Amino acid sequence: MRILFISNYWPPEKGAASRLGMELCKALAADGHQIEVVTGFPRYKMTETPAEYAGKPHIVEDVQGIRTIRVPLPHASRDRAIQRGIDWLLLPRAFKKGIKMAGEADVVYTVLPPITMAHAAAYAAKTKNAPLVTMYGDIFPNNVIELGALSNPTLIKYCRKLEQFAYRVANKIIVHSDCYKDYMVSDAGVPADKVEVVFNWADTEAIQPRERENEFRAEHELQGKFIVSYAGTMGPAQGLQIAFEAAELLKEYKDIHFLIAGDGQDRERLVRLLASSKFTNVTFLPSQPLPKYIQLMAASDVCLVTLDPKVKAPTVPSKIWEIMASGRPVLASVALDGDAPKIIERANAGISVEPGNAQAMADAILKLRNEPNLAQDIGTAGRTFAEEFASITPCSQAYLRVFEAALSTKKS
């Protein structure tokens, strides 16, 4: 099968979307499928375009074995809503040149948001006479409305039209949880047979249970500590302040230490909070490269997944699977009626607490600290579940089945 992937995120950019896209493409290519990617010059979490791309009209290159066509894209600040909105609106036009350069395709695939990627991918599907499969990482505009980042009624109405267009042009839609599918079918009116649920995944080969007392602990002088870690994006949606509130509640326990690592638009505020409150039981680090990230999780006794209480969408953060793969307990502070707590309970992989409830988080940390056998059993169960349901092999095969189903709808 010839698969054309229209991607807003692609290595060497860092982040879950880039990593998951590459891992999926490599798995499908290893199975004999022909993969071609149309993307932009690297820009995500970068202040400027890398020198080797600057000024070029386009570049065709091999990225980890995948033929990649790169075109210049807008380079707006992610922290400025107006600039980011203009960026999104310009994406379809920017992608057209790369799409025209791409070869024939049996299926076109893209990831949303940005919601306007649906326009770029729909153009590709029409140009290549191929069905379109879209995968939703978040439900837009619900995700920004809930956080208060989008409140203008006219803009909301416009974004709802973009949302409906994206649903309409897709032959098949992939979501990573049952609640997302329920929303699309019940609230957005998408036909149930158009939407398929496929979990995100972790690299269970690279991320495995390892010794806690490792080089990472020694480097940061954390030997013998009970480490509570968070590693990932630091944005308004994460509601990461709860970790600092829990650290304050647990400051009398000298063996409990919080390890917070990552980047994002909320990072500077959290750095100031850390400095002003003079925490002695919190270590704050920048985003870690993959080898260090794997060591960080191995060094942890419990790993946090947090979302702001205002986030009601049934998000299943991809780091849940990585925590499970590492054999560590998940402590999730997320909406309790969403899919993340259901998956954690199904896997017996951790504890879920009410979002924003620092006392509940602190109590759960103490429970795992005081019951090491329970923590060990939970970590082992999570690892087993990740290997069976959330590693790249079963997930890539599930994607392939969706692509084949999309192809059959096009032929019919």
General description of the model:
The protein is α/β, with parallel strands linked by helices. The protein has two domains: 2-201 and 391-411, Rossmann fold (3-Layer(aba) Sandwich); 215-389, Rossmann fold (3-Layer(aba) Sandwich), CATH 3.40.50. It contains 15 helices and 14 strands. The protein has helices at residues 16-30, 81-101, 117-128, 142-146, 153-169, 178-187, 215-219, 241-249, 267-277, 290-299, 319-325, 339-347, 358-370, 372-389, 392-411, and strands at residues 2-6, 34-40, 59-63, 66-71, 107-112, 132-136, 172-175, 195-197, 226-231, 256-261, 282-285, 302-306, 330-333, 350-353. The chain has an eight-stranded mixed β-sheet with strand order 3-4-2-1-5-6-7-8, with helices on both faces. Strands 11-10-9-12-13-14 form a six-stranded parallel β-sheet, with helices on both faces. β3 (59-63) and β4 (66-71) form a beta hairpin. The radius of gyration is 21 Å and the shape is globular. 47% of the residues are buried. The model has no long low-confidence stretch (mean pLDDT 92).
